[in-house]
Input
Amino acid sequence: NDPDRQALEERLAGHRVHAGFARHRTGVFVGRNDALATLRETRATGAQLMTLLGTAGVGKTRLSKEYALAEQQDYPGGVWFADLSEAHDVLGIVEAVASTLGVPLTQTDPIQQVGWAIGGRGDMLLVLDNFEQVVEAAAETVERWLEMAPAAVILTTSRTPLGLEQETVVP
Output
């Protein structure tokens, strides 16, 4: 067994409470109850990867946060929000998610290290906001993480579908 993975899993064992995400709503959430219901229904079908698709400024980020806050009780591993607006490649995605999860990158395979961190949290929700500028890296990151963390749910916001087989697009 990999000693680095074992050490990481031991470190994460005590961090299964809801963390890494604001726990309180800010402002009023108006007019998107149908979209919120659609997200809930999509998740109820067993979707592990959901993408909120839409043009800039339609409220994808706000909707993803509202969903995460409303559904956090379903994710004992926590709800986590990673802003990818500064990411421009695979490494940018990995660094943003590692920072969100509080995982220092120390391995030669940081994608795998983050995958272990996600998998070690069990039932958790990871929101990846602004994925459109790094959509070409989806297979190398998101797809691999989903394979490593079958209990995790990933919700992305994007102007472009990720193009992964397991993706469910929510317009």
